[in-house]
Design a protein that fits this description.
The complex is a heterotrimer of chains A (about 525), B (about 325) and C (about 325).
Chain A (H helix, E strand, L loop, with lengths): L2 H10 L4 E10 L2 E11 L3 E6 L6 H8 L7 E6 L2 E2 L5 H6 L2 E4 L11 H5 L6 E2 L2 E2 L1 H14 L16 H13 L5 E5 L7 H16 L3 E5 L3 H7 L2 E6 L2 E7 L5 H9 L22 E8 L3 E8 L4 E5 L6 H8 L7 E6 L2 E3 L4 H4 L6 E4 L3 H5 L6 H5 L8 E2 L2 E2 L1 H15 L14 H13 L5 E5 L7 H16 L3 E5 L3 H7 L2 E6 L2 E7 L5 H9 L1 H8 L1
Parallel strand pairs in A: 3-10, 3-11, 6-9, 9-10, 15-22, 15-23, 18-21, 21-22
Antiparallel strand pairs in A: 1-2, 1-4, 4-5, 7-8, 11-12, 13-14, 13-16, 16-17, 19-20, 23-24
Chain B lengths: L2 H10 L1 H20 L6 H26 L7 H15 L4 H28 L4 H19 L9 H7 L2 E2 L2 E2 H18 L2 H11 L1 H6 L4 H27 L6 H17 L11 H20 L7 H16 L15
Helix pairs in contact in B: 2-13, 3-8, 3-9, 3-11, 3-12, 3-13, 4-5, 4-6, 4-11, 4-12, 5-6, 5-11, 7-11, 9-11, 12-13, 12-14
Chain C lengths: L12 H11 L2 H20 L6 H26 L7 H14 L10 H21 L5 H20 L10 H8 L8 H19 L1 H11 L1 H6 L4 H27 L8 H13 L11 H20 L4 H19 L8
Helix pairs in contact in C: 2-13, 3-8, 3-11, 3-12, 3-13, 4-5, 4-6, 4-11, 5-6, 5-11, 7-8, 7-11, 8-9, 9-11, 12-13, 12-14, 13-14
Classes of the chains: A alpha/beta (about 525), B mainly alpha (about 325), C mainly alpha (about 325).
Chain lengths: ~525, ~325, ~325
């Protein structure tokens, strides 16, 4: 295809799908500030960006899961709005989501033919369905999967391939793969690459979202980089170096959001909590890390590399844990949060999902705030309301929570809810505070307050372990940063070594990849 | 079918197959211990009792497959029992219309449940518990005191034998082959499994969730109605008994669980439940021929149910992330 | 962000109104209004409907249901359900009459019945927390086993012996002149439950578990222990009700508990407790219980046949469920 012909074509024919200046807001939070995208038939378009750069929101809009707040989406040049994933599917746009949409108890063939199976006399023709599934599985190079097998009985990597086959069966014009290769083996990835090349030759448009640079290198015709919810640049593949791409992904000034970091003492205090070679199922593969009073240790890396499991393990939520946890140098084992929060460890965990894990939404603000420390407000067997009330009011003042104490916590804004989730544990005066992405979906003002609070707590001698997907927080707030990759700590950064480049490189495992390639 | 296919069929149907083997062993023992030898009337009696519970268990299976439950199944049986004791009488045409009326009653009750669960978005447990009271009330309205009558000829023909084969068994076979098998292969039938397996994924995949659930509760009502008709033909009278309704519901759940259908939905089927029902019934018969006191029977059935549901919970014990065991 | 360090804590009028509205329980208001309507309607029908004697008699009848409903409420608040009520109640009753003739003159029957009820509750609680079997299924199974055990124990018929004098006194005697003791027992059980739910960490934990078990667990609450203990209390309550019933009726009989399961759940739900757990007050359960008993009584006074009673029962519960029993999809 000569470039002159291509440009002539493009002028004559509108792109398959085009988004211009699309915005998506959830309440006060802007998830996508400026989304622009052009998908051409017969071309693979890679979208890159850090966590929270707006990629997933973009995908959700394109595949009909959510509707954009502002902006226009055009299909074949005509404005379009999708009402549901099914609606998008009918117009030829199919997405392979990261979280699988398969039915575990049904067979592979049932799953692939779920909406429109081959039928005879109105009934599902099982044999034809199995043949059809075999055909699609062969198409993606997975002849090894028996279509009669139940999806539940397949390993995750196989399931992901079935998901791809299921998407292809709709014969989409635009196929979206959202981190669809995250659990695949190297062989499978190779198969997918071959498949996508062929589909491209057949004229399909493909939107490819991945963190893996080497896959993008093999596949992409065009690349778009997103950062901070904005489209940064779109360029033909190969016209930018990897270093330039990484710089684009950062693309902003580190704002003055963070409280000043105190100088680190020459000789750090003895660690209060220490993990030695923690292993759990296949999610933790030997994690060793310690945290001392007064320091904030960040846990970084891509989503789902074991950071969450690590915090849950420390808090006693995982059974069958390998390795060792030490508190003040003595081995400890917790059979649940109630033991982890007790003396001498006094751990506290601010969980990831404040709606389902952090708060009892229909209960009042006051009841939520005192939930972790009920025993302390007792006189004899009874709750002492005066006592409890005083403590709750005190914490509300200290954290500047804007709330009516006797109304359900669900009436509060997201930021204030998160403050309640944290305040509940401050009443327990924890020695170690574990936080799981505490600023996700929270406005900037509250974020700053939480940063200040964490720094204050650290100054007061609390040890803080902060898991966050926001690189700014790792750089601006943390004294040390552990970057997780595939269930282990890939790199431990400290002081001036905590740079965006270093974090991204470790999170994407780029250095290691180069070594493997060499 | 090749070897791999056979292996898969065996694995996916392990629990119903196990139930089948257990039933065969128990029933074989029962026949061997029969003092009078194997006679048609022994088979007919056993079949009638077994098919009655099997139909209710089949009814219960449908909502359970969607991840719900129908606690009113027994009450619908009693309701249709009372209805049949009034309607199934008279000339041939009247009897035919009566049968249609009884099945229509079951269907209507099923539609009521379906509306409560699908449109009213009520919890199936409490909704069907409430409707069961209403159905029971209607039964009392129809038949304030035990009694009633059905056409003798019709009753004896349907509860008798045809060339040595119990007619009730033929009826059950017809339900399985002509209703269940095709239904399971319809889009709605598969929708029931899809909804029970993972409701959100089913929705994302374009499965029509509401019609599938609706069909499950309506189907349950219809099959319970058929069971009510059979009960009337066997007993040749009717009684609006809350205790009987409760017992039937409990036994239907027990049969479903023993037959290998998961209470969380998505796995299992009516064939297993039918076998589960036969097992439950045979326990009583076995205890009888073993000359055990009939007083032991309820205890055995209760213990077997408790054991069956406890075995079903074993996978829960393997979960290593304690958080996931909490709602 | 320049929020003053100390926020004004003076409650604004607007906020106070919102808190009041939040605390105002629509089900409680509706149920109370229904009670008044029944009393009014009943008095029009029959003037003795409002006489103290009749009302006290109704309260005595309500006390059995009220005690069962207390246990049921505790379990429902957790988001569970106890379907073993019928035979737990019958077991309590049958043990009470069975032991009446024993050497201790039947005094022992009281603690024994309560202990057996507690043991049944413990089995339920362990099945639900350790095996993680849905409470509905497990308690149904336990109910079946209890039925089997009692059939074995009594030989399949009503036990011939009647309740011990002390049990009769507990139910039908009058410690305070004019007031049957059963009402006092209910009052004591109710006061215990109300204090437990409102003023102890245990109660707060019950509500937390019902609202979001996972959040309760991550707050360091001892979820399993509290769930187990709640089932134990519920089992004891059912057995106590069975005990009192034998004192009232003189005898125990098969299926005597069957008429208590649904009314108890109905009383709890009509009193505003959410069937999915986490919300509800004990006052509501009292009102719900009285409503059910009065409804029954009025239907009886009006010589409504049993059929109509059952249908109205079911329909009232059904309507109430549709009004406010649909979970909290908006918030959850």
């Amino acid at each position: 295809m000569s470039s002159a012909a291509a440009s002539g074509d493009a002028a004559a024919r509108p792109p398959l799908l085009e988004l211009s200046d699309v915005v998506k807001r959830y309440g006060p939070v802007t998830a996508l500030a400026h989304g622009s995208l052009r998908c051409e038939a017969g071309s693979i378009h890679a979208v890159m960006g850090e966590n929270g750069a707006g990629k997933s929101t973009l995908i959700k809009i394109v595949s009909g899961v959510v509707a954009p707040t502002e902006g226009e989406m055009r299909l074949d040049g005509a404005p379009v709005r999708f009402r549901s994933p099914l609606d998008a599917q009918k117009r030829g746009i199919v997405c392979v989501f990261q979280e699988l949409s398969l039915l575990p108890d049904l067979s592979v063939a049932d799953n692939i033919g779920i909406t429109a199976p081959p039928r005879r006399f109105g009934l599902i023709d099982r044999r034809a369905q199995v043949r059809q599934a075999e055909r699609w599985l062969a198409e993606i190079g997975c002849d090894g999967i028996d279509p009669r097998e139940r999806v539940r009985d397949l390993p995750l990597s196989r399931r992901q391939m079935v998901e791809i086959a299921k998407a292809l069966r709709h014969r989409p014009r635009l196929l979206i793969l959202d981190e669809a290769t995250s659990a695949l083996t190297a062989d499978d990835v190779e198969r997918v690459v071959v498949l996508l090349h062929r589909l491209r030759a057949e004229g399909m448009a493909i939107l490819y979202i991945s963190h893996r640079m080497h896959e993008i290198r093999k596949l992409a015709d065009t690349c778009s980089v997103y950062a901070n919810g904005r489209h940064v640049e779109t360029f033909a593949h190969g016209t930018r170096s990897e270093a330039e791409i990484v710089r684009m992904m950062i693309g902003r000034e580190l704002s003055q959001m963070f409280p000043p970091r105190p100088p680190r003492p020459i000789e750090a205090a003895a660690p209060v909590l220490e993990a030695r070679a923690l292993t759990w199922e296949d999610r933790l593969r030997g994690v060793s890390l310690s945290v001392a009073p007064g320091e904030i240790v960040g846990l970084g890396g891509l989503d789902g590399q074991g950071q969450r499991e690590f915090l849950l393990a420390l808090f006693g939520c995982l059974s069958g844990l390998g390795g060792e946890i030490r508190v003040d140098g003595t081995p400890a084992s917790f059979r649940g949060p109630s033991e982890a929060m007790a003396e001498p460890a006094r751990l506290a965990l601010i969980p990831e999902d404040r709606k389902t894990e952090g708060l009892m939404q229909p209960m009042t603000v006051a009841e939520n705030l005192s939930a972790a420390t009920l025993r302390s407000w007792c006189r004899g067997p009874f709750l002492n309301n005066v006592h409890e009330r005083r403590a709750v009011e005190e914490i509300v003042r200290r954290m500047q929570i804007k709330a009516v104490l006797d109304l359900p916590v669900s009436t509060l804004s997201g930021g204030n809810q998160q403050k309640v989730a944290i305040g509940k544990w401050l009443l327990a005066a924890p020695r170690v505070l574990l936080l799981c992405d505490p600023t996700r979906g929270i406005d900037v003002g509250t974020k700053q307050e939480i940063y200040r609070l964490l720094r204050e707590l650290a100054a007061g001698g609390t040890a803080v372990l902060l898991h966050t997907t926001d690189y700014d927080e790792l750089i601006g707030l943390c004294d040390r940063v552990a970057i997780f990759y595939a269930g282990r700590i890939n790199r431990l950064l400290e002081g001036d070594a905590i740079t965006e480049e270093a974090i991204i490189a470790a999170a994407l495992d780029i250095g290691a990849e180069r070594e493997r390639a060499a | 079918m090749n070897r791999a296919g056979l292996r898969l069929v065996l694995r996916h149907n392990a629990l119903p197959l196990l139930a089948g083997v257990i039933f065969a062993a128990m029933f074989g023992l029962y026949l061997a211990l029969q003092p009078n030898g194997i006679r048609t009337d022994v088979l007919v009696t056993a079949s009638n009792k077994g098919v009655l519970l099997a139909l209710i268990a089949a009814a219960q299976t449908l909502p359970v497959l969607t991840g719900g439950i129908d606690l009113s199944a027994g009450a619908i049986v009693v309701l249709c029992n009372c209805l049949a004791s009034i309607l199934v009488n008279g000339s041939g045409l009247q009897i035919a219309l009566g049968v249609v009326g009884v099945l229509g009653g079951g269907l209507a009750a099923g539609v009521f449940n379906a509306l409560a669960v699908v449109v009213g978005r009520l919890q199936p447990i409490i909704a069907t518990l409430a409707t069961s009271t209403m159905f029971y009330g209607v039964s009392l309205l129809l038949r304030p005191s035990p009694g009633g009558d059905v056409d003798d000829d019709f009753a004896s023909r349907l509860t008798g034998a045809w060339y040595g084969i119990p007619v009730s068994l033929i009826l059950l076979g017809a339900v399985l082959l002509l209703v269940w098998m095709p239904f399971r292969r319809s889009l709605t039938g598969r929708g029931i499994y899809a909804v029970g397996s993972a409701e959100a994924s089913a929705y994302m995949s374009g499965v029509k969730v509401a019609p599938a659930k609706f069909a499950a509760y309506v189907g349950a009502g219809l099959l319970s109605g058929l069971a009510g008709l059979l009960l009337t033909l066997i007993a040749e009278s009717a009684q609006a008994s809350a205790i009987q309704a409760g017992d039937l519901t409990l036994n239907s759940i027990a049969a479903v669980v023993i037959g290998g259908t998961s209470l969380f939905g998505g796995v299992g089927g009516i064939v297993g439940s039918v076998l589960g029902a036969f097992i439950l019934r045979t326990i009583g018969d076995l205890l009888f021929v073993l000359k055990a006191s009939p007083l032991w029977q309820p205890l055995f059935q209760g213990l077997i149910l408790l054991l069956a549901v406890s075995l079903g919970a074993l996978p829960m014990l393997r979960i290593r992330n304690r958080l996931e065991t909490y709602r | 962000m320049s929020v003053p360090a100390a926020m004004p804590q003076r409650p604004r009028l607007q906020d106070r109104v919102r808190v009041l509205l939040h605390r105002l329980d629509p089900p409680l208001v509706v149920a109370s209004a229904c009670i008044l309507a029944i009393l009014f309607g009943g008095s029009l029908y029959n003037s003795s409907f409002l006489s103290p004697h009749y009302l006290l008699q109704q309260l005595q009848v309500a006390s059995f249901l009220g005690i069962v409903a207390t246990g049921a409420m505790l379990v429902i608040l957790l988001g569970h359900i106890d379907l073993s009520v019928p035979w737990t109640l019958a077991t309590g009753a049958m043990l009470a009459t069975g032991l009446a003739g024993s050497t201790l003159g039947g005094i022992a029957s009281i603690p024994i019945a309560l202990a057996v009820g507690a043991a049944i509750g413990l089995v339920n609680g362990l099945g639900v927390t350790v095996l993680r079997i849905p409470s509905m299924i497990f308690t149904l199974g336990v109910n079946a086993v209890l039925q089997g055990l009692m059939v074995l124990y009594t030989g399949g018929s009503a036990p011939p012996s009647s309740a011990a004098p002390i049990v009769r006194w507990m139910s039908d005697g009058q410690l305070l002149p004019g007031i049957p003791n059963a009402i006092l027992v209910w009052a004591a059980v109710g006061a215990f439950a109300a204090v437990l739910l409102r003023a102890t960490p245990f109660g707060r934990t019950v509500y937390a578990i019902g609202n979001r078990e996972r959040a309760a667990y991550l707050s360091g609450m001892k979820v399993r222990r509290v769930v187990c203990l709640s089932f134990v209390l519920a089992g004891s309550a059912s057995a106590l009700a069975g005990l009192l019933l034998t004192g009232y009726a003189g005898k125990a009989f098969q299926g005597m508990g069957d008429t208590y399961l649904l009314p108890a759940i109905a009383a709890v739900v009509l009193g505003g407790t959410s069937i999915v757990g986490g919300r509800g007050s004990y006052a509501g359960t009292i009102i719900g219980t009285i409503l059910i008993v009065l409804l029954q009584s009025m239907l009886a006074v009006m010589q409504m046949p049993d059929a109509g009673r059952q249908i109205i029962y079911g329909a009232v519960i059904f309507a109430m469920l549709l009004l406010y029993g649909r979970g909290r999809s908006g918030q959850a």
